[in-house]
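TL;DR need structure tokens for one chain.
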Amino acid sequence: MDCRTKIKELREMTGMNRTEFCDYFGIPYGTVTDWERDYRHAPEYVLRLLEYYIRTQGLIKENIGKNKDET
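>> reply
TL;DR here they are.
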């Protein structure tokens, strides 16, 4: 998976918008924007660390993409 796709997937897993994601992780907004627009690429270890942190800290939103009426 390329950086652009992975960083967006990670951000969307948390249910955060780009500003919230940047503030939470202390990453400059322009950096994440450049990653998501494929202008620059995050090092692979950064993507792995972000995914590890998101998973171990329980930041994954369970109902992303699901209809609110579903149980």
